[in-house]
């Protein structure tokens, strides 16, 4: 049986007078329309077509301690079309780490240097295996205190700026991830959604403990056509990218639900 380490995770009729009143009313209305138009211009200039803060953004900052572990890290996670050729994927949770401070032990140095100025709050991690128990994936949820504009900027160019800074693996003693360490990492991915103050990371590898020739590669590179290396052929790039996208959707749902509950 898989061994887990649980963690705390748990808003007047007289003409002259009438004419004067009409003129004054028009003036007030005119100033109001002009002021409204200017306000609209200022808001549009700040972020065309987008609200100042997405729904659930504030609530998402507290998910790391407010949401149950099974909400943030479901025991079983499905990924329709997440595999090579649009194949479906199913992942099973095998280990959960206690929530941790933002340090080099749980974050790659490039990502840590990027999120620290935004206010890095907490890091949550769990490791999953696929349905065949042949691959393992460590997922990281990095919660920050970034405001919405800073998060949008972060999300636009995060993977480009971080280059080959690979997330650390989380091994699980007594599980199929027992030998999942730095040398076993094969493919990785990062996702910083514009509407959540979170960075989702994932790194995949083989469950049999084998090392990867050439080291880990970004998921999109592992997914390019005509690659014949083991990482590409096994679909580990698809695994890493697919699971990060799935976790973004889960967090978005949790944040939106929390916002609706707070609005009641």
* DSSP summary: helix tally: 9
Shape: globular
Provide the structure class: alpha+beta
| Main beta-sheet annotation | 7 strands, mixed
Uncertain residue segments: 5-47
Q: Classify the helix fraction into a percent range.
A: 25-40%
Strand content: 15-25%
What's the number of extended β-strand segments?
7
How do the strands line up in the largest sheet?
Answer: 1-2-3-4-6-5-7
The separation of the N and C termini measures 42 Å
* Rounded radius of gyration (Å): 24 Å
Mean pLDDT metric = 81
Helix-strand topology string: HHHHEEHEEHEEEHHH
Question: What would you say about this model in short?
Answer:
The protein has helices at residues 15-46, 57-60, 63-66, 69-72, 109-115, 148-162, 219-222, 230-233, 236-263, and strands at residues 76-79, 89-96, 120-130, 135-144, 185-191, 198-206, 217-218.
